UniProtKB/TrEMBL annotation:
Keywords: Membrane, Transmembrane, Transmembrane helix. The lineage of its organism: Bacteria, Pseudomonadati, Pseudomonadota, Betaproteobacteria, Burkholderiales. The chain crosses the membrane at residues 35-58, 94-114, 135-156. InterPro entries: YdjM-like. This is Metal-dependent hydrolase. It comes from Cupriavidus malaysiensis.
Amino acid sequence: MASNKAHHATGWAAGLIAAALVAHAGTAGPQGLRAGLALFGAIAGGTAPDWLEVAWWSRSRRLWITHRTLTHWGIGWAAACAWAYHSLAAHPVAALGFGFACGGLMHLLADWPNPRGVPWIYGRHSLKLWNSGRCDLIVIAAAWLAAAAVADHVWFHGIHSRWLVDVVRAGRPIS
């Protein structure tokens, strides 16, 4: 499990990805309102699998469900993401749900390297790379690299990615 700060940071990265995908779908709306909804939905979704486990209706605020079970189920988040994406043109608020689901998926990806793993399909699966709270910088950097790549593809037509590939192929230093 990544730390709470890492989930917040990767939630912002998921927000950038969601906003770019909403814009790419051509459903960003006036002044990018729907892209903004996707951004804010993903920020909330980045920590959602953890706070959805808390029984907010009780005084004790204990977990109503075991940690990393139903709220961390990969198929549920992926299905929500797909449904919301396909609903973007029909429902103005679907962008918020799409962002929320993207944030939830990013949360699962951040938890995946932990030995406890996450239940993607059936049972838990783990990459078994490091323990909770360790290597958060790697998780955050990977999320932001993915966000930069998606944003570059959508808003800059991949010009930065192509430039970097050309530099690497040429074997010369970046100047």
